């Protein structure tokens, strides 16, 4: 089997961990205080991350969003600079891929930056975290970005399901993907974090639309929803990809738990590698 591809690995450098986790009060509270994982909020140099985290676990590539997250209560933008991700991608193009984080209020300036990130810096798609912006994933503010991604032939990964942070979860309901998939049939859409707790709706969207996929990020495999596991192991092969939401879930622990699911060999190969490689255009990676 080819090495695994992580469809959502948060930016693992000191800068990335600081911005998204240690200095982000909501994520620090949820991941650290609530879930007891403060000790995992550690930054690595790219070489260290590849040698100490990816290689021992058999991870071939990670897809890293330049996260744009707006804190709903504090009205504060948590912003991973896409240029920082680009510099790491430039150094390790065979191991690390970037996603441009979409701020729906950035307008055409954001659309131009998205195009630059994809065409000049090798980013493989866009990324949407809709909750804090108080903007549902089918809102017109996102449509110029969706149109540009469709034009460029790259997917959009969207966090779907509830928000663990104190933000309106309704904006990530997977039924909203129905509108986007209908309006943009050329655009590949990846519903990340399994759309929990609306997993059966997520299955329905992925089954209905040829351009809708699921990323199993944000939840340890031992907790994966049974309907999604059945889907990825049967009629949903080629529609579901593995992801972690690292550092929340570590690569080694996630892959060990995948091994315990009893998946068919072909379904496991597609889950861990082939579907992400196809959707993100990673070729023979």
Give the secondary structure arrangement, pairings included:
Blueprint: E1 4-6, H1 14-22, H2 25-34, H3 46-57, E2 59-65, E3 68-71, E4 76-79, H4 82-91, E5 96-101, H5 107-121, E6 126-128, H6 143-152, E7 156-159, H7 177-183, E8 189-192, H8 199-208, E9 212-215, H9 226-232, E10 240-241, H10 251-259, H11 265-279
Parallel strand pairs: 1-2, 2-5, 5-6, 6-7, 7-8, 8-9, 9-10
Antiparallel strand pairs: 3-4
Can you walk me through this structure?
The strands form 2 sheets. An 8-stranded parallel sheet has the order 1-2-5-6-7-8-9-10. The protein has 11 helices and 10 strands. It has 285 residues and is of the alpha/beta class. It is globular and about 45 Å long. 40% of the residues lie in helices and 14% in strands. The chain has helices at 14-22, 25-34, 46-57, 82-91, 107-121, 143-152, 177-183, 199-208, 226-232, 251-259, 265-279, and strands at residues 4-6, 59-65, 68-71, 76-79, 96-101, 126-128, 156-159, 189-192, 212-215, 240-241.
Q: What's a concise summary of this model?
A:
With 285 residues, this protein is α/β, with parallel strands linked by helices. The chain is built from eleven helices and ten strands.
